[in-house]
Amino acid sequence: MKRLSALFLALLMALSLCACGGGADSALGKYNCTSIVMNDIDLGSSGEWLELKDDGKASVYMSGETHSAEYTLEENVLTMTIDGQEVGTGTLENGVLTLEFLGTTCVFEQEAAEA
């Protein structure tokens, strides 16, 4: 009976760890811009990217310059601020970040993690 209980508890712990996967840690990393849309016109992208760091900080490369930013991620809703002002909100699902950013819709895809 003790072995069965121990096996059940081990299985339960393993399942609870699986349920925790895909959390905030999986959101960390670099995202490359794949699309910028303004007024229903796709402007493409020219090397823009952003990087989400584990301390709520971010780096954003747009218009040829890198900017420091902060972000919050609750569930799959990301809010980005620069110098205390909200500059964008969006959703993060399955490694794709769609961000309403300064009047445009930017789509970023997460780079694959290195093995």
Task: Note the topology.
Elements: H1 2-19, H2 24-27, E1 29-38, E2 41-42, E3 49-52, E4 57-62, E5 65-74, E6 77-82, E7 85-93, E8 96-101, E9 104-110
What does this entry look like structurally?
It contains two helices and nine strands, in the order ααβββββββββ. It has helices at residues 2-19, 24-27, and strands spanning 29-38, 41-42, 49-52, 57-62, 65-74, 77-82, 85-93, 96-101, 104-110. The protein has an eight-stranded antiparallel barrel with strand order 1-3-4-5-6-7-8-9. A hairpin with a 2-residue loop joins strand 6 (77-82) and strand 7. Mean pLDDT is 78; it is low at 1-22.
Based on the model shown, name its key terms.
eight-stranded antiparallel β-barrel; 115 residues; alpha+beta; globular; 9 strands; 52% strand
Mean pLDDT: 78
Structural class given helices, strands, pairing?
A: alpha+beta
Percent range of helical residues:
10-25%
In which order are the strands of the major sheet placed? 1-3-4-5-6-7-8-9
Shape: globular
Number of strands: 9
> How would you spell out the order of helices and strands?
HHEEEEEEEEE
Distance between the termini: 41 Å
Strand content: over 45%
